Amino acid sequence: MTELPAESDGWTEMSFLLVQIQACRLMYPVIGARRHSSTNTLDDIAEKRRFVTERSQALRGKYGFQSETPGELCRIAFQHCNTALYKMNFILQLREEVVSQKQDGLQRDEGSVQRPSFKIACSVLESYRTYTKGSADSRFKWLFSAFTQWYALAYILRCLCISSNIPDADYAWGLIEDTFPE
User: Fold this and answer.
1) pLDDT over 80 at 176, yes or no
2) How many Cα atoms sit within 13 Å of 26 on the Cβ side?
């Protein structure tokens, strides 16, 4: 090939891979890279949340996720992107809760288990369930089935073991059961 192919305006099977790559590029500065120069961790978390919001809106605009009638590939990529966004929000929320606990002098498992991080972890499993159990194109179900969202699953199980009186416990158990069908 002497020159790159022309970019397509419509969705192709390659578009899904491009969305995955862009989502990974979005996640790295939030999850992978830690800046040690920040003096205030909560400010750093707020900055990362703004970064995620701005970049995810740009990604959605570029790939037409806001379209009224997205095609099947676009819906699958949108769901995949949503799961990545939930993952980033979960990690940022968890970091914020840990920092707040340290500042308040609480022990690691003290306080309410019904934290925002629990709800976000449930959102991750719900998103995962949508494209493994939903009407997604069968050509792509193997991809989503191969990557269980273990971090969210482990966190939900940990919270359920710590406290038995979580308001969303039945919902969370339903998500867990759907993750491991018989």
Assistant:
1) yes
2) 27
